[in-house]
Amino acid sequence: MRGRNQALWVSVIGASTLMFAWLSAAVLALVTLRKGPGEGAYLLAWAILPAGFLLGVFGDAGPLGLILGTTALAVMLRWTVSWQLTLCASSLVGVVTGLGMLWLGVNYLQQLEGFFADFFANLSQQLSQQGGQPIKLTPPGIGTIAGLLGLMNAMSCVLCLLLARWWQALLYNPGGFRAEFHGLRYTPAVSGILLLLVLGVSSLGLGYRPWAVLFALPLSIAGLALVHARAAYRGYGAAYLTLFYLLWVLLDPVKLIVIGLAVADSLVDFRSRWQPKPDREDSDNE
Fold this sequence. Notes:
Layout: H1 4-15, H2 21-35, H3 37-58, H4 62-80, H5 83-104, H6 106-131, H7 142-172, H8 176-182, H9 188-202, H10 209-234, H11 238-250, H12 252-268, H13 270-274, H14 280-285
Helix pairs in contact: 1-2, 1-3, 2-3, 2-4, 2-7, 3-4, 4-5, 4-7, 5-6, 5-7, 5-10, 7-10, 9-10, 9-12, 10-12, 11-12
């Protein structure tokens, strides 16, 4: 924020490393949110060069997909000022990433498929020896792996965008991001469409599960926002949220509960029910 050169160096250096590509993506999003898509596009044009080099030399499209997807979501958020639309667009970013890998990254997907095939074969052999009976685990195919890569990119883009928005609030509107995130809630129509997409894609088979989770991602973020809002309302500290996220990462039922809370919140609006009702006598006096 001090100048174009500082932002340029950070975004380019970050995009040139596999470990710190997230930093480049967050900086690009911050500049886009604060100064507009024009400034963001200027930095993106330079950051694409090292990210493209990593793709060409190592075959890793992760940094390139991350900076492109995060910048696109930042442009969407700046234009619409709507987290609801922006998070829905994150599902589209994941779908485009997965389809792009199927189109342009077949060789890379085949390498990953071979790796998973060997890993699952060794694991099946070990389990069979321990259990005394043959156990065969089915490795993921190319389509499933592409969906997983798309899901990982979409989640990373959302996290980088949230980080950039938090930075922006710290600099120019302290406390604004907290209120913005805690108030995240979908309309019944949007949550219903997302839920139907999740169920519809899941019904196609186990191999399509990562593609289905892509459409559950916006609902998951809204559910997590509701949990944060409830924790703030009840005065729970960081230990409560740490325990919750530990359970959320480890237990799939908790993930489903979070999605269910997001859908229910779109219908019920839990936050309005948490607010204390005004005293009738005070209301009459007013």
